[in-house]
Design goal:
The longest helix is centred in the N-terminal third of the chain and has 16 residues, at 16-31. The chain is α/β, with parallel strands linked by helices and 304 residues long. 45% of the residues are buried. It has a 7-stranded mixed β-sheet. The protein is built from 7 helices and 16 strands. α1 runs parallel beside α3. It starts with a strand and ends in a 9-residue tail after the last helix.
């Protein structure tokens, strides 16, 4: 199974429309397998930590010889279009689940023939939720056939402000099946950013059959060491692949952490990005989940 992570960098000057167009072009380039042509129009300016002009493609040594270059799955970060920390933009950027952004991401997946984890967007709910909020942080996974799976972020970051003040919390544990070219479909568990700090969610996903956890994020640089450590912990304790796609750049005076990574069920980091805009292309072997769980059957000893 080939996975591409697009670590998007942005600042406060780039418009939502321009960013959607730019990132969509990157996804199209990935799907065309034109690795050498993956470039960005972004530039590093004045040491502000913006994206590099080159989008680097790192390919795992585990790549299968003779396999198609195109990925089975492309993963984008959390809130990369409406921005992760500029809360003032969220109300204006909010859309219903069948709105223009989701339709555009669905069309992109069907056009390119890949399964696209489009990251997340600010969803305008059809009615207020239990906390009286009308917005949610909702991620969307779309197959090449246009089949959509949505997940509303359960754990809201902000300690009473920010997300808890503005967004309704999700309540559902969500998994989905991702088709692959060479293997059986892989069951993935969906979560978002701050969710990574709550291991109970991932055990629920394991119980639902998850072999791989998809974690889009807008994780800041101030705590990026936690981001990488927690990803490895979730992989080891659940004996599953962890695919973490973060943002880069600086917006709303917040420097983003980058360092997207793919972690094997053994805890081995198969690939890790730097702090700028970057693309990781990694091959994973879904069968490693079963062999790891059989060879060291720690999950069978669970008591709680």
């Amino acid at each position: 199974m080939r996975i591409a992570l697009v670590q998007v960098a942005y600042d406060d000057d780039e418009t939502l429309g321009a960013r959607v167009e730019r990132v969509s072009a990157m996804v199209r380039s990935l799907a065309s397998a034109d690795v050498g042509a993956r470039t960005s129009d972004r530039r590093t300016q004045g040491g502000r930590g913006l994206a590099s002009a080159d989008v680097v493609a790192r390919t795992s040594e585990r790549r299968t010889q003779g396999a198609s270059e195109a990925p089975d799955l492309v993963v984008l970060p959390e809130l990369w279009a409406p921005t992760g920390f500029d809360y003032r933009r969220w109300e204006d950027a909010a859309e219903p689940i069948d709105g223009p952004w989701v339709q555009a991401m669905t069309a992109l997946a069907t056009e390119t023939g890949v399964t696209l984890h489009a990251g997340s967007f600010v969803e305008r709910l059809p009615r207020p939720g239990a906390d009286g909020r009308t917005l949610a942080n909702t991620s969307v996974l779309v197959t090449a056939d246009g089949e959509r799976t949505a997940y509303r972020k359960i754990h809201r970051f902000g300690f009473g402000s920010g997300e808890p003040k503005l967004l309704e919390a999700g309540t559902e544990v969500v998994t989905a099946r991702v088709p692959t070219r060479d293997d059986e479909p892989v069951t993935v568990g969906l979560s978002t950013c701050y969710d990574l700090r709550f291991p109970e969610l991932y055990r629920r996903q394991v119980d639902a059959g998850a072999q791989l956890f998809l974690v889009p994020a807008a994780w800041p640089a101030a705590r990026v060491a936690h981001w990488t450590l927690l990803g490895r912990a979730r992989a080891v304790e659940d004996q599953a692949f962890v695919v973490q796609c973060n943002t880069a750049g600086t917006h709303a005076r917040t420097e983003m952490g980058g360092h997207s990574q793919v972690v094997a069920p053994t805890g081995e980091v198969l690939a890790e990005a730097g702090s700028d805009e970057e693309v990781l292309v990694v091959d994973v072997e879904p069968g490693l989940v079963a062999s790891t769980r059989e060879g060291f059957p720690v999950l069978a000893d669970r008591r709680l």
